[in-house]
Amino acid sequence: MENSSFAKPLTRRFIAGNTLEEALSACQKIHAQGILITLDYLGESVTLRQEAIASRDSCLASLRRIGELGLPATVSIKVTQIGLDVDEQLCFENARSLVQAAHAIGSRVEFDMESSDYVDRTLRIVERLHEECGCVRAVIQAYLHRSEADIADLNRRKVPVRLCKGAYAEPLERAFQAKEQVDGNYVKLAKQLLEEGAYPAIATHDDNMIAPARPFPKDGFEYQMLYGVRRDLQQRLVGEGYRVRVYVPYGEAWYPYFMRRLAERPANVLFILRSMLGG
Ligand code: FDA
Asked: Please, what are the domains in the chain?
């Protein structure tokens, strides 16, 4: 499925290309509009050591090209992509080489947050690397009950945080389920980050989540949005002088990422069906 000829027309709204060079050409167009980038080499749930090392090498290659092109870009990675399910030490070593490479070119590694079983181990790696090199960003999901305490701890350590709503199916005892509850918690956590945090990222396409950050100093935070989602809003915010960073995924392992985007918005299924039928 991931390599089939059906894939490209299906995924091109959300995925910037199969190869690094295709993604970089999308990044240059985005950069020309005054928008910052975080480049994501797609991959997750890796179970073999060689696959984890290959993912690390692909992310190192993207950092190398970011440096060569002078793009205002960070990279986003997932800990299960670089071996957390294989061996935590291997994952840490891989993460450290990425953070060191990012540091060398003045970039940053943003650690996406996966399902709640991974939160403790992900934060442990991020905090260790923050102490060693800086240039990391943690991600916190507003749907988790634990997130207020996690943010207080990250703020104390001055670790920059990306706040998102959360994209995985989580049980009742760990996460708010109702949209109003998730949204209410998002606004509360965003204020906690904007008032006490270190250069937070407000990652959302929801106007009601964007509004509470507006009065804060424009150089003290950034908005983040996904490639292919609410381009109108991205442009508008840049026009108003806000910093906006777009998350640009590329690579062949697009399936889980793509399915999360469809799940977030059922209307996307119709959109995809229409484009498959040539409409
Ligand atoms: P919400 O889902 O309420 O959407 C608000 C509006 O935005 C919709 O009405 C629609 O107009 C538009 N919209 C939202 N999603 C859309 C879509 N897929 N297609 C088209 N329109 C859409 N999650 C996670 O668990 N771990 C992570 O590390 C990250 N990282 C991350 C980085 C960045 C930069 C962003 C923007 C998001 C993430 N996420 C994430 C995903 C996040 O948790 C969440 O699932 C989505 O952002 C959707 O939530 P919104 O805040 O956009 O609100």
From this structure: 7-276 (3.20.20.220)
